[in-house]
Amino acid sequence: MKLNLLLVLFLCCITLNSQNIEIEELQDEIKTNLFKKPDSAKAYLFKLLKYSSLRPDTAVAKTYSNLGITYNQLAIYDSATYFFKKGIDLVKDHPLIKAQLLCNLAINYRTNAAYSKSMKTLQTALSIYKTLDDLNGKGLVYGEMASNYNYMSQKEKAISYLKKAISIFRETEDPRLYILQQKLANAYYNNGNYEFAVEIFEQVLPEFQKQKGAPYYLTLLAYAESLIEIGKEAAGEARLIEAKNGLREVNNLEYMHVAQAKLAKLYFHTNRSALAAKAFEDSYEYLRDHHSTRFLQIAADYLEFLNDQGQFDAAYRIVEEVEEVTNDYSFKMNGQDELRFLIAAENTYRKRKQFELSLKVYDRIDFLKDSIRSAEDRIKIAELEESYQNEIQGEKNRTLARTNNLLKESARKQLNITILSCILTVLIFGLSIAFYQNHRKKLRLQKEAVWQLEKANIVLKEKQELENELLAEKEKRLGDKERELVAISLEAADTQNQIRDVLEAKRDESTSEICSLIENIIGQRNYWNHFKTKFVEVHPKFSYNLGEMFPELTDNDIAFCSLLKLQLTNKEIASLLGISHQSVISKKYRVKKKMQLQDNDESFDQLMREL
User: Fold this and answer.
1) Of the candidates 350, 347, 341, the residue with the CA atom closest to the CA atom of residue 322
2) 421 Cβ contact list (under 8 Å, min separation 6)
3) Measured distance between the N- and C-terminal CA atoms of the chain, rounded to whole angstroms
4) Is it the case that residue 235 has pLDDT exceeding 90?
5) 3-state secondary structure of 230
6) What are the C-alpha distances in Å from 339 to residues 182, 228, 365, 368, 372?
7) ∠ at Cα 208 (207, 212), nearest 5°?
8) Which segment of 39-48, 100-109, 121-130, 263-272 scores lowest on mean pLDDT?
9) What is the 8-class DSSP label of residue 52?
């Protein structure tokens, strides 16, 4: 019995040991492939989950988090969110790990342009780190908040939070400082400070290059564009190609096509239109079909290219398609993507002489410009207020210290007088500087106000020109339709009358039956009803308005008035209705009598023209 028990224990030890070895091997493979080959890492992670019962909850939670990271790299954001949340649920009693997983979840939200969710998640993580007094954790959250503001084009706010995070990491000598420096480079790149961005990118790229994964290739994208912006197109193109090939290798196809679209933009600006067209089309279709948040940005670049090439019909198809598939431009990183696309779309409408659509888009462009400018102004004002409050508090503290010193040194009156004189001199000097700066600020604001008025005047003139062109086009089309209506109707009536005249001239006993048959056929073609249908298409509100003004008019009276609206002669009306000239005059007199205008021909004719 004892021998059997020992044998069972021995077998259990061997099984556990083999399982532990397999777990360690899987963890090594995951560490190697997590950022280089996310597809392979995903397979190893699912195998590792089979051993969840043998591992602590914290370890299983990190496995779920790594699964979220792989799905994020593969641009499958819903699955990434699902696994991040599963991991968070397992570590409710482990706040430090929970905060780390919350940061990963916030990054996934940001990548999918869900900025409000991302900021809310980061605030939760920040509160945990503050409770734990974890300074590095706070620096990490500030860095991710800065990235959110960067993606939202709130540039000053992004740089402000990054400086806070970098200050913390320098103080704690955190080895992840280069990650924050890369975020700072991205912020300066988005702010248009390309030379400084290039300088920072070149400092941090060697660290990312040690593990050639998605973070390295994504950093290359911004670095390459910065190189292009400072005139180093050849170096920028080489980096873009490296990023594109690397992203394809790690199976991040979304950003691989983003890199390809950036290459297309470079081809466009370096007169390689054929290459640009192929690359733009391929990237546009992939990002559209996968509902990428970078889609609208690439669609704007593609639309600008088509407009430049004079392919306005193709550009118009792109505009229609984007409006349909994005559901009011929902696939976008920020409001600036929509603004760039609408500016290009407005150019397309204008080139195609679609002035009504152009005018409609123009209003949306103005609204977006004002919104973006207002958001930036609010950020600057908030920062200035914060700075001003700090200065005021500092001044209060200094004043209190001076007061205490004066009380302690009451015996040294002469020294106090000297100190007070110095303080007054400084205050006068400070007030002079403040007055001078305030005066300069007023002048700057006045100049800006004049510029805004001039701009508004230009916009108003452009809108008026568009409206005038549209009105002229409408009036021309209306005149053409009226002439076509009258011509067709008179021609039909004239043909009908000629046939009747011929029948009357040739009628005798032998042809009487045939003539009657022809007259019946002519009677079945109701040209008058055809005329009324066409008239309603040209003047849809005429009959309704006339009936509202003069309820005593019958439908036949209103139909008769429609002929007068077209300014037909009595002879033409008689021909069209198949009645005599005198009957037309009588009919007109009866209608005017019902309208109580029988003694005022001029008012009647004017009413018919203007109604």
Assistant:
1) 341
2) none
3) 113
4) yes
5) coil
6) 27, 23, 6, 6, 9
7) 130
8) 39-48
9) G
User: In angstroms, rounded to a whole number, what is the distance separating the alpha carbons of residues 228 and 226?
Assistant: 5
Cα separation, 180 vs 201, whole angstroms: 11
Answer yes or no: is pLDDT of 392 > 50. Answer: no
pLDDT of residue 395 exceeding 60: no
Pick from 395, 300, 407, 391: which is nearest to 346 by CA?
Answer: 300
Amino acid letter, 94: H
118 within a domain of the structure (yes/no): no
479, pLDDT greater than 70 = no
Tell me which residue range forms the domain holding 567: 488-610
Q: pLDDT category, 571, cuts 50, 70, 90?
A: confident
Ramachandran category for residue 578: left, alpha or beta (phi over 0 → left; psi -120 to 50 → alpha): left
Separation CA 161–CA 152 (nearest Å): 14
| Percent of the chain surpassing pLDDT 90 | 6
> How far apart, in Å, are the Cα atoms of 155 and each of 126, 162, 220, 379?
21, 11, 20, 9
Cα separation, 110 vs 9, in Å, equals 51
DSSP 8-class letter at 54: G
Q: How far is the C-alpha of 431 from the C-alpha of 11, rounded, in Å?
A: 88
Total length of the chain: 611
In a domain, 384, yes or no: no
> Residue 382: inside a domain, yes or no?
no
pLDDT value for 520: 61
Distances 336 to 48, 156, 407 between C-alpha atoms, Å: 43, 16, 59
**Mean pLDDT, residues 528-551 taken together:** 78
- Helix or strand holding residue 552 (H, E): none
Last-in-domain residue among 358, 376, 394 = 376
Q: What pLDDT does residue 226 have?
A: 92
Q: What tens digit of pLDDT does each residue of 147-180 get?
A: 888 778 777 788 888 888 888 888 888 888 888 8
Last residue of a domain, which of 376, 391, 408? Answer: 376
**Residue 32, CB half-sphere, CA atoms under 13 Å: how many?**
9
Specify the pLDDT at position 15. 53
Q: Which amino acid is at 65?
A: S
Q: Are 143 and 170 in contact (CB under 8 A)?
A: no
Establish if 116 belongs to a structural domain.
Answer: no
Overall domain count for the chain: 2
Q: State the Cα–Cα distance between residues 371 and 375, nearest whole angstrom.
A: 6
pLDDT for the residue 330: 57
Single-letter amino acid, residue 248: R
Q: CB–CB of 333/370 below 8 Å?
A: no
What is the pLDDT, as a whole number, of residue 486?
65
Burial of 221 (0-12, 13-18, 19+ CB in 10 A): buried
